[in-house]
Structure formats: C-alpha cells, structure tokens
Amino acid sequence: MDIQRIAQIKTAARVPLTLHGGSGTDDDDLRKAIAAGINIIHVNTELRVAWRDGLEEGLAKQPDEVVPYKILPFAVESVKKVARSRLKLFNADR
Asked: Has residue 21 got a pLDDT over 80?
C-alpha cells in the first residue's frame, strides 16, 4: 500500500477517500492508511467469510437442526465479532 500516495491524493482532492478491498489488509497498513487520509474502508469480503464460518460452526454444532433461526445466530455472532474488531481499529484515535 502506497501510504505516501494516499496522503498526496487526500491533499490534492480534499474529499473523503475510500479504500475498496480492505478485507485481508494488515491492521498496521489500515492504521497508516487512515492516518494518511482514508475515511472509508470496505471490508465486505471479510464480513461474508465471517458469516460463512459462523454458519458452518452452527451446522457443525447442531448437525440435525433444520430451523434457520436456531442456526443463524452463529453466523450473526461471527459477523458481529469481525465488525466490532474493525470498528475498534478504525476508530482507535477517537
């Protein structure tokens, strides 16, 4: 990630900047990008993977369950954990 280039673009554009494809990016690189001027970070793939992992966990723990509302809480909780960790990282200076 070219942090210096992000800072140059931010200075020149003077508008909010979005980092698309933030999923899988190292936390330290995200901190640096935020410090350089990134305002919005997309982590949709990371949330989708968490949902899938949580769903698989629910199915593994309750293999005979067929009622969605009994399985889906595993997926929801998995997504919440990722969202909380990302929000904590993105708002660390606030």
From this structure: yes
Report the pLDDT value the prediction gives residue 8, as an integer from 0 to 100. Answer: 97
In this structure, what is the dihedral angle of CA atoms 72, 74, 75, 81, given to the nearest 10 degrees? 150
Q: Does the pLDDT at position 52 exceed 70?
A: yes
- Characterize 84-94 residue by residue with b for buried, 16 or more Cβ atoms within 10 angstroms of its Cβ, and e for exposed: eebeeebeeee
Arithmetic mean of pLDDT, 19-29: 92
Stretch (H or E) spanning 74: helix 68-90
The C-alpha atoms of residue 16 and residue 10 are separated, in whole angstroms, by 8
